[in-house]
Amino acid sequence: MQTRRKxxxxxxxxxxxxxxxxxxxxxxGSEEEVNIKxxxxxxxxxxxxxxxxxxxxxxxxxxxxxxxxxxxxxxxSLVFKGAxxxxxxxxxxxxxxxxxxxxxxxxxxxREDPLYVIEIAAITNVASALMLAPQIAEKIEVVWLGxxxxxxxxxxxxxxxxxxxxxxxxxxxxxxxxxxPCMGVVSEFLSTEPEMKYWLGGKxxxxxxxIEETKFFKSHSKREDSPWSVVFWDVTAVAYVLDDNGxxxxxxxxxxxxLNDERNFAFDETKTVDYVYSIDRDVLMEDLxxxxxxx
Length: 295
Fold this sequence. Notes:
Radius of gyration: 18 Å
Largest sheet: 8 strands, mixed
CATH class: Alpha Beta
Number of helices: 10
Oligomer: single chain
CATH topology: Inosine-uridine Nucleoside N-ribohydrolase, Chain A
């Protein structure tokens, strides 16, 4: 059983996909298990935002709306905008309010009592903090949804490949790291519209909004008259921090990867990561729905 509340921050591209909304809601519903110390806005680029500036501003607005719907506006002062560009080949840190806060918060922790960094987006914010304050590497644990299973055909994962320089800085660093592989592991953690409506429909304003946002997101890629499911990718990174007794997932030590010149994984035989290889979909989904229904 978990005996203490862990200090956590979350780095999210909130507006990018609907699973970020579910992950943040799950975190907000887990206050008995964690102390939320910061919510950081990470950059992204796709059809949802034409520029990085737009992605940061839209994600910030979505985050503030979610906090209001969840009745958690007390955290508004802990929402910090992150990098307005991805880290470049010059490997220079990208300062931002999020980076400043992460360095300050991490500095107040220790190896024995670390700050957990839930990373569910491009990782420039965390990489920048480590470059500006290398000493925090021993004070944080990064839980990253940023790869595919080692056995997958490639590592063409959105968070990883969209922020390639910062990704390699994290992978090659000495920071304690947990990897949640998307395809091949987390891809099993999915739900459908009927399931969401059955368990959450009408429970509160937040749950109804989450369902509608998920339907809207899926409408970009699916016809209205076709069946669909959605993977709640980012929820699993929150769940890892909550899961002290193996209830939600199974973890093992694996060789620590880094990105080679072909932008695929090679491995450092002298270092390890914690690697999630299995998720109990039903147990975790029950906990997710239960906590959101109570917000």
